[in-house]
Design a protein that fits this description.
This protein is an alpha/beta fold and about 270 residues long. It is about 40% helix and about 25% strand. It has a domain of about 150 residues: P-loop containing nucleotide triphosphate hydrolases (Rossmann fold). The protein is built from twelve helices and ten strands. Strand 9 and strand 10 form a beta hairpin. The structure holds adenosine-5'-triphosphate and magnesium ion. Adenosine-5'-triphosphate binds next to helix 1.
């Protein structure tokens, strides 16, 4: 049984043209332990797909059809209470901008613990702190005690992104959705975050849906890749196969757009 099955997903926002589908017939599945890359140009439906999977796109905002099975739970049939139970425990989402995702007036530690307040109410204060520190260390924040006490503005971009990942893994989710989380970071920090995600995947079997514009990063990280264009999947396969034999002209175009220096680096690996 797959961890995630998306079948013929279609989404049209209320108030948009009747034939304008933000997502237009998307189907794919993920097994436990997969790292799946979702790439494609801006406005192509990647984030909307991720929002549907994580139950963040209510029917009041958009017409949705098709179905999404996460660990055998039909997401579109869930009540709000059921969605609140799933999001933040079975599935967590990290978005691009840690500065806007963290609340500036609370210390990092409290915000890393937040998922525990909602999903593991039985833990006492000390247990929550211990879990937060553990998640921060797993996310590569060596000096977790110190970071725990800091405010968001006191951390660098890379550390904030690690803290976001700590907040996302504190409940040990089955699926982590990462939406453009390395885009705003410089190349060195990007590489560290990729290594961290690979580590979480290998050591803990965490499944990751990784959304990115950056094919170089996707190539390093993802076992499988989906290329989307205008709400549809135009290519889907093992990452190595897609890079070696891109079938769609759009994918070839994307691969050709990777700077040649990076291509050489990859070929030398
Ligand atoms: N709240 C909204 N109301 C109306 N249309 C929306 C809304 N959110 C997204 N869309 C539309 O849905 C389509 C897909 O957007 P989406 O955010 O999924 O793109 P994306 O692939 O994530 O792009 P990017 O790479 O820029 O993040 C776009 O045409 C966008 O304009
Ligand atoms: Mg997006």
């Amino acid at each position: 049984m797959s961890l995630l099955e998306v079948n013929d997903l279609r989404v049209r926002f209320h108030g948009t043209a009747p034939d304008h589908y933000a997502v237009n017939g998307v189907s794919f599945s993920m097994e436990q332990g997969d790292i799946l890359g979702l790439v494609g140009e801006s406005g192509t439906g990647k984030t909307v797909t991720a929002m549907c999977i994580s139950g963040l796109l209510p029917r009041e905002k958009a017409y949705r059809s098709g179905n999404i099975l996460l660990d055998q739970t039909e997401i579109f049939d869930c009540t709000e209470a059921e969605l609140n139970r799933i999001l933040g425990s079975d599935i967590t989402v990290v978005f691009q901008e840690p500065m806007t995702s963290f609340n500036p007036v609370y210390r990092i530690g409290r915000q890393v613990e937040e998922g525990l307040y909602v999903h593991e109410k039985g833990l006492d204060r000390a247990q929550k702190k211990a879990r937060a520190l553990e998640a921060m260390r797993r996310a590569g924040l060596a000096d977790a005690e110190e970071v725990y006490r800091k405010y968001p503005h006191e951390l660098s971009g890379g550390m904030l992104q690690r803290a976001m990942i700590a907040a996302a893994i504190v409940t040990n989710p089955k699926l982590l959705i990462a939406d453009e989380i390395t885009t705003a970071l410089d190349v060195t920090i990007q590489a560290q975050i990729i290594d961290l995600l690979l580590d979480l995947n290998r050591k803990e079997g965490m499944s990751i849906l990784f959304i990115s514009h950056d094919l170089r990063v996707v190539r390093r990280l993802c076992s499988h890749v989906i290329v989307m264009q205008k709400g549809r999947i135009v290519e889907h396969g093992r990452t190595d196969d897609v890079f070696a034999h891109p079938e769609h002209s759009y994918t070839r175009h994307l691969i050709e757009a990777i700077p040649s220096r990076d291509k050489r680096v990859n070929e030398d690996e």
